[in-house]
Task: structure prediction
Amino acid sequence: MEGKTKEKCEKSGIIEMWAKKHLLYTEATRHPFILSIRDGSVDLSSFKRWLGQDYVFVREFVPFVASVLIKASKKSDDGNDMEVILGGLASLNDEIAWFKSEASKWDVPLSNTVVHKANQNYSRFLENLMLPEVDYAVAITAFWAIEAVYQESFAHCLEDDSKTPSELQDTCQRWGNEGFGEYCRSLQKIANRCLEKASSDVLTKAEVTFLRVLEHEVEFWNMSHGCA
Ligand code: HMH
Result:
């Protein structure tokens, strides 16, 4: 293994390139629903709809993250991947508890939720990504994108000039906090490392999957906003 330790400079990775290249990334992270939270004009019935539907989403997201963990344990050549993904699973455990308490605060029932079409489509997409034949690089890219959209969106609502209503601060903190940002950067690093080594076929699949995630995220916000 001689000569392998050439220091990799912190150049912009493939993920950053894709996020810059595709306008859809900005559409997903600066959606009108998020902008309405940020400027305080949000319709609270939209917020409640989002809350109920996102609880359903998160429950579907857990098995997907578990599938990424399995892929990491089999395919990854870096021992740290597992810890990062396991940390993500642990935070989903907290998140489920948070949804329960937040929903009761807002009088949003969490049982018998009518699952919206956008949510159904998103969970079908996740199920396909759970298949063993889906490459680890593709799955981890999707995982990063799903988390990053929420991180960037809600962090935007916490910036100094934002007028986010105080009763929504807690929600924005959940995904917009610095710790969650750090976690997303760890996922991004893993994804970049995998993509750098990937074949051009896998790279294409990962980019397409990245775009599909963004489309699903936009549809999800649309649903919350009530314009889907
Ligand atoms: C729809 N995307 C959606 N819900 C979430 N909770 C996240 C991403 C982040 O976990």
Notes: Confidence is low (pLDDT under 50) at residues 1-10. Residues 19 and 41 are 28 Å apart (CA to CA). The radius of gyration is 18 Å. Residues 54, 57-58, 146-147, 149-150, 217, 220 surround HMH (CB under 6 Å).
